[in-house]
Design goal:
This protein is α/β, with parallel strands linked by helices. The chain is 29% helix and 30% strand. It is built from four helices and five strands. A five-stranded mixed beta sheet has the order 1-2-3-4-5, with helices on one face. The protein starts with 5 loop residues before the first strand and ends in a 12-residue tail after the last strand. This is STAS domain-containing protein.
Length: 105
Amino acid sequence: MTSPLTLTHAQLADGTSVLTVVGEIDQSNADDLAAALDEAHAQVVVDLTGVGYLDSAGLNVLFARGTGLELIVPPLLSPVVTVSGLADLVPVRGPEGVAPDAPSG
C-alpha cells in the first residue's frame, strides 16, 4: 500500500517555487505531483528529501516538466535519478546542498 503523498508549496522572494514532497510517488498519485508542478512558477525546486519511493510514473512526471526544474534528492533516491538520466537533464543536489554523488571531505 502506498503511503499518503503530501505536497507543500512555498514561494521564495525571487519567485522560485519550492515544492516539498513527502511520502511515496507511484502511479496512484503521480497525477497529483503533475498538477502541483503545473501550478508552480517557471522555476521550481522539488524537495524529495521526504520521499521513500519513486517509481517510473513519478520519474515520467519529472521528465515531462524538465525545464526550470531543480531536484533535492536524498541518498535513497540518488541512484534512481542518476540511472534514469534525470540527473543529466536537471540540476540535482543532496539535502546538504551538494550533488549527491560529490566526494565528501
